[in-house]
Amino acid sequence: MFKEFIGLDQELYEKTMKVNLENTLWMRQYMKKRRDNKGGVIINVASIEALLPFAKGLAHYDISKAGVIALNRALAREW
Predict the structure, then answer these.
(1) What pLDDT score was predicted for residue 37?
(2) Closest C-alpha to 48, from 37, 58, 34
(3) pTM for the whole structure
(4) 3-class DSSP state for residue 54?
(5) Pick from 70, 60, 79: which is nearest to 18 by CA?
């Protein structure tokens, strides 16, 4: 949902973070525990918007997708 930064409310921010970042984090943890030593591939979808924002009203979305990229990089190093 597009919403200018100045009008962003906590409810939309939290929903966006939960859907795009938190669910990704918890899913990856669950899959690592379940599939450890069995192999497999996890594919997460981020967005070019996280690296090169071009649309107005998506600051909250950009933050969540940048978090997915950071999570992927951190876990690639850790695992």
Answers:
(1) 82
(2) 58
(3) 0.89
(4) coil
(5) 60
Q: Is 26 helix (H, G, I), strand (E, B) or coil?
A: helix
Q: Name the DSSP letter for residue 46.
A: -
Q: How far apart are CA 70 and CA 18, in angstroms?
A: 16
Which SS3 state, helix, strand or coil, does residue 43 take? coil
CA distance readout (Å), 60 to 25, 26, 28, 31, 45: 17, 20, 22, 26, 16
The letter for the amino acid at 68 is V
H runs (alpha helix) in the chain: 10-17, 23-35, 48-51, 59-78
Distance CA 25, CA 38 (A): 20
Burial class (CB in 10 A: 0-12, 13-18, 19+), 58: buried
Residues of the chain with pLDDT under 50: none
